[in-house]
Amino acid sequence: MNDRIRTGGCLCGAVRYEVSGEPYIAGLCHCTKCRKLTGSAFSATANWRQDQFVMTGSVQTYDRRQFCPACGSRLFFLFEGGMEIFLGTLDDAPYGITPHLEVWTTRREPWLPQMPGVDTHEQNPPPL
Ligand SMILES: [Zn+2]
Ligand SMILES: [Zn+2]
Question: Cα of 13 to ligand 2 centre, how many Å?
């Protein structure tokens, strides 16, 4: 197997992680919650399975989302069997993962164009 390994971590470096292989879903979300929690206009995240992920350091959790207690960087949303990673925490920039899903487009800033070839939803998509 030659799965691509990507490394990432928080701003201060206390939390580091690796993910192997490609995510099974990658998306953008413009919802009001993602705006608040990222401090940005939208979130860019992707999901990997639990067995593709290794982490060092310790995190704290607020509203099921993990952050570095030292520097405050938002890192993951851990769930049963996998994790959603905030892609801005990857070391590579650009990180080479193209979103194929865009949700809460009713909240998208008007200066952001719609991406071609992306599955869009005005609010949350139906469950997988
Ligand atoms: Zn940190
Ligand atoms: Zn959201």
Answer: 26
